[in-house]
Amino acid sequence: MNITQWLVSTIAILITSYLIPGAATTLVGALILAVVLAVINLFIKPLIFVLTLPVNILTLGLFSLVINALLIMLAAIIVPGFAIAGFWSALIFAIVLSLINAVFGTYRK
Fold first, then answer.
1. Model pTM?
2. Which of 44, 51, 57, 104 lies 20 to 30 Å from 64 when distance is taken between CA atoms?
3. Contact, 20 vs 93, CB < 8 A?
4. Cα separation of 65 and 6, whole Å?
5. From CA 19, how far away is CA 7, in angstroms rounded?
6. Burial tier of 53 (Cβ tally within 10 Å: 0-12, 13-18, 19+)
7. What is the C-alpha to C-alpha distance for residues 36 and 13, in angstroms, rounded to an integer?
8. Dihedral, 26, 28, 31, 33 alpha carbons, nearest 10
């Protein structure tokens, strides 16, 4: 992760936490959360995805949203400047964060 990706992820996290009522973060929390989410997505998410592959196939990939929400909740436990109200807030946070990252990703290229 280079500095540009880190800053774009931080901005996306700040925008998402502003839009979602059950999420709260500080600037430092968003900076740390961007790194923690990158590490989680690099190491933990592939392992969980492989372990839950049968369920993912049965649900046509929708279980990935649940996995993302649970990983957001894990990140909220790890990062002190980030809080999420519950599962549904984490699910909406994960969806909105993915959409904002996708929009920012198209502008970076």
1. 0.90
2. 104
3. yes
4. 22
5. 18
6. exposed
7. 12
8. -60
Interatomic CA distance for residues 44 and 75, integer angstroms = 11
Give the separation between CA 65 and CA 1, rounded to whole angstroms. 23
Give the list of residues 6+ apart from residue 13 with CB closer than 8 angstroms, or none.
25, 30, 33, 34, 37, 97
Residues 82-105, buried b or exposed e (16+ Cβ, 10 A)?
bbbeeeebbbbbbebbeebbeebe
The mean of the pLDDT values for the chain is: 92
The torsion angle over the Cα atoms of residues 47, 93, 36 and 43, rounded to 10 degrees, is 10
Query: What type of residue is 104?
Result: F
Which pLDDT score, from 0 to 100, does residue 4 have?
85
